[in-house]
Amino acid sequence: MQILLHKRSYYSFAFIVVNLLFAGAVLGQSTTITSGQTVKASTLSAGADIILKAGGTLEMDASKTFSSITTADAGTSTINGSGVLTVSGNGNNAGNIIIAGGNTLVLNTNATASSLQTGDLDNTTATISSDNNSVILSLTSIAVNAINNKKSIARLSIGANISVSTGSIVQGTGANNSDYELYVSGILKINGTLKDFRDGGNGITTFTCNSGSTIEYNGADQKIYPTTYNNLILSGSGAKTITGVTTINGNFTMAGTSSAASTIATSANNMDFKGNVSIGSYATFDARSFNYGVSGNWTNNGTFTAGSSKVTCNGSSTQEIAGSTATTFNNFTVNNSAGVLLNKNLNVNGILNLTNGQITTSSTSLLTLNNNATVTGASDASFVNGPIQKVGFSTSEFKFPVGKNGKYIPIGVTATASISDAFQAEYIPSSAAALGSITSTGLNSVSSCEYWNLNRITGSSSVNVTLYWDVNKNCTGSSFFSDPSSVKVAHFNGTTWNAHGGTATASTTTTGSVTWSGVSNFSPFTFGSTANFSVLPVHFSNVKASEKTSGVQVEFTNLTESDVDYYEVERSLDGKAFITTKKLYPSKNNYSSAAYSWLDAAAKEGKIIYRIKAVETTGKTIYSNLVNITLGAKNSSMSVYAKSGQVALQISNLPAGKYQLQLLSAAGQMLGVENISHGGGSLSQTTTLNSAKAGIYILNLSGAVRMQQKFLVQ
User: Fold this and answer.
1) Per-residue pLDDT tens for 108-128?
2) CA–CA separation, 26 and 18 (whole Å)
3) Contact 266, 292 (CB under 8 A)
4) Are 411 and 451 spatial neighbours (Cβ–Cβ below 8 Å)?
5) Rounded CA gap, 557 and 686, in Å?
6) How far apart are CA 274 and CA 276, in angstroms?
7) Mean per-residue pLDDT for 149-167?
């Protein structure tokens, strides 16, 4: 509309009626924003009823209160801006945000309304979403409405951050047999009641929580709808009751205010927590008599009441049990190959079921089995990696389910019946011999690779201590158990192995046990032996140095590895000054053969001399023969010398292949034959001369290279 006035003319009006049109909308108490239009809230009257058609946008350029917001048709309607939207007023729809079937309302500003409602839906969905999860829609209630005259399906999909204070959710209207469905992919905070059709009336029939969603019940005395949740938070100050099987695919959090506690009481058969479980400082989780699966971490900063429940750790990555408060489970199952790590003390009152995976403990994060607690299922696949404490004993043996390095290696304790005596055990795969010398009369040796720490924590009982061996698992070698009658339990007093005792029970030398009765002094125990072992020194064999593309491959074997602390591979250019090029640690230390190999990538061309140094746990040092190699050379050479009934053979730059070494008398009589498989480079070989007389002998080498060397035996 235009009013044109001539500048020199004078007009007199009694009144002027002007209807201002804004892009097709009438600015007044009812405003329609049509498709393609953006209307600023500052241009609209406070208290207006806003009809927002698909494709239309309400721009909250300033905070404003409107009586109602209604989306009118299918499509997408949008509310943007930084101003706060308040929906409140008088009239039929006052205080309501109403979303039509097929419409998506995108709410990108903070808003407050009495109710979020759908239109009367007939097998259609009304949706509210947001592009910003920090935007919050605060409501008193939510209603999903179906068409009145027939059975229908009415759906509300929530993709925004919505907080419902005191009212109900899904108090729907429509035919009694209609289905009222709620789908959440955003955040829904419930302070009031989530209506369940099973309680009568038009309550929710389907409640679906999509991936990424979070549902929070933060009121008093609420019933938790039994469904599959993504993230579930129970907060506030009331009791939360779960009435059916419930799965939480994300995280489960219990929180409460400082003035009250949140309590979960479940009458469900099972709850399955696929993510983390967190119990807040003022929260109480009452587990009662049901089963709980946990796939994530368990953090207890409040109170967990175990009842007669069962908790199973069944994740696929390492699960932590932590928090400021120690947790006590009734029955506890570990079924996770990645294991469970304790970062806080854990107690078990009932059954510890070790199905799959280790429980890793420490002195400050201890696993304690209380009186009457038992253990089932311990194996190489599942044991306690660290210390474990047992409180209360019957007259039956308790076998501590300890181990290390993928091996279950228990220790048994049989005590007099006592509900308060406590013992703590841990398996240590380190040399017992290295702890100290043997002073117990008749005890000749102790294990060089393992022992158990067993301590009495409370009480005064004398007990029977049982050690178990399986030569396929224990690092103590089979020769140690070749005479079971000589196997004993040895005790360390902090300085020496001062006592031993016990009787072995074994049907074979492969497996068995030894029990020492009436033990009253504790700390380390290990296998001891009263047998007169002929202790073998380090016996080097097959010491080789082979030229490779990237350096020199040094190999050696210790035929009787025992009590070795470490090896050093040493290199020299002149045979006098040696430097350490590599430090290696023993792989067996059980009196059996152990082979080693290492590539010296720093070797330079020219003559190089290698030797192996072995340092025993006693500090004794033993050296191998010298091995010579000329890096980059092509001609082979052989040298032989005899001493103390043995012949030492040294061949340099010998090509890889299979060879035969023959020992002949001066007359050509064959005295011995040895077949050799060589990887190339230098070869060092030792041969025994049995009852050889003084004279000249011959060594013949045949294969890819043929060589002969005479030598003198004096």
Assistant:
1) 999 999 999 999 898 999 999
2) 12
3) no
4) no
5) 13
6) 7
7) 85
Residue in this structure with the two tokens 């023969």, named with its chain if needed: 625
Please state, in angstroms and rounded to a whole number, the distance separating the CA atoms of residues 27 and 68: 15
What average pLDDT does the structure give for the chain?
86
Contacts by 377-382, CB closer than 8 A, 24 or more apart? 377/353, 378/354, 378/408, 378/410, 379/354, 379/408, 380/406, 380/407, 380/408, 380/473, 381/337, 381/355, 381/356, 381/357, 382/334, 382/354, 382/355, 382/356, 382/357, 382/358, 382/408
Amino acid at 538: V
| Distance between CA atoms of residues 430 and 475, nearest Å | 10
Relative to beta strand 161-164, strand 136-139 is: parallel
Structural class in CATH, domain 637-713: mainly beta
The span from the CA of 635 to the CA of 652, in Å, is 8
CB 389, CB 413: distance < 8 Å: no
Q: Which two tokens stand for residue 94?
A: 């006052």
Retrieve residue 652's tokens: 């340099």
Indicate left, alpha or beta for 319 from its phi (over 0: left) and psi (-120 to 50: alpha).
beta
Local structure of 485: helix, strand or coil? helix
Q: What is the pLDDT of residues 195-254, one digit of tens each?
A: 776 666 667 888 999 999 999 998 888 888 888 999 999 998 878 887 776 899 999 999
Q: Which two tokens stand for residue 379?
A: 């194996």
Residue span(s) of the chain under CATH 2.60.40.3080 come to: 637-713
CATH code 2.60.40.10 region(s) in the chain? 540-631
The one-letter code for the residue type at 328 is: T
What CATH number was assigned to the domain covering residues 540-631?
2.60.40.10
C-alpha distance from residue 300 to each of 216, 258, 285, 303 (Å): 19, 16, 10, 7
